[in-house]
Amino acid sequence: MKQISGGVTAPIGFTAGGIRCGVKKGLADGNQPVVSSMTDYLSGKKDLAMILSEQECTAAAMYTMNRVKAAPLYITMEHLEDGVAKGIIANSGNANACAPQGHENAKKMCEAAAAATGLKPSDFVVASTGVIGQTLNIAAIEAGVPVLAGQLKKEGGSDDAAHAIMTTDTEKKEIAVTTVIGGKTVTIGAIAKGSGMIHPNMGTMLCFVTTDCAITHEMLQDALHEIVPRTFNRVTVDGDTSTNDMCVVLANGMAGNPLIEWKDDSYTLFVQALHHVCEYLAKCIAGDGEGATRLVTCRVWQARSEESAERLAKAVVGSPLVKAAMFGADANWGRVLCAMGYSKAPFRPEYVDVKFASDLGEILVCQKGAGVDFDEEKAKNILSRDSVVIDVCLHEGDWEASCWGCDLTYDYVKINGDYRT
Fold first, then answer.
1. Per the annotation, does 184 bind a ligand?
2. Which residue out of 204, 211, 216, 409 is catalytically annotated?
3. Is 416 annotated to bind ligand?
4. What is the pLDDT of residue 292?
5. Which parts of the chain sit beneath pLDDT 50?
6. Could you tell me where the beta strands, DSSP code E, fall in 20-172?
């Protein structure tokens, strides 16, 4: 496996693009577009993205577990009932969730994309992200889609699309990898967004994955169901599960590899590559949590089961007290054990060892469930890095799991205190 550039346009047959059509600026402007020239479309914060394949793709998706779901999810579910698609249309700045004319506007987005590309509305996945409960400026989107369709490109298209789906994200989230399957080079590319309202019940975010691998819908769906629980579902930023979570994979088969229709060696290679892509993006989302200054990983190992290890690790990275301690680079390991204790996962506290680690080294702070003498200054230096690890050894079994989160900072409250206004 090799990591390359290009994101969602790295696989054969895919183009993408992103423009500013005015959704972000014009939330309260009724249904009037707020752009008037090509310069307006191509400047400012992008808010409309499209990804398109030359050939029909097998498609698979997973969605939020929140009972309140945004309109685009229902339209996408309907369009993917046959397991195929050719493109994705997505906006940021407005979630189109719990919004007036939500379903109608989600359909209009697909209709606009179809009219601009000569395809059918059902060929498109549709997604939205942003403020909940406000009417989507569909006129701005309808005016922007033809411009966007004319801007789709191979080089730089993924970068534009990645920026166009960002909300409170501070950096784009993009990756591409190649691997060899059946003697052919297969490429997987992806972009994602996610910063706040992030808690694992799907992967609370938007993630669009493209691949030129030849694979059946059934195998693609199985691969996604296998990978999401071990990647995106192990991320938490703030404990809030979004209404708009979606992870979609489009596979157009243009790499020319033998069709993957069984769980054989080729399937295993594909799953490994897709897992790498999703885990990379999961860490990007965690590290770019709203107001965050560092990525926090909790690794729980020598556990009784993978499920219990995951539950324990998730409780630790999700604890507001642990997150606050990470912000202050405070080696307050008691908060780690406290979070483990209310996770409802089985473990023996008197067996637990805890270390803090980063690129500056590691330090043991708890052994067999009790504190040990350690150098507070060294611990603080270790925890002051951009990426830190809470390493928990249970001494009870052979299973392990890692979950990802971030620290809790003053800026998180500032960002969310006036997010809507």
1. no
2. 204
3. yes
4. 79
5. 26-38, 40, 43, 198-204
6. 48-63, 84-94, 124-131
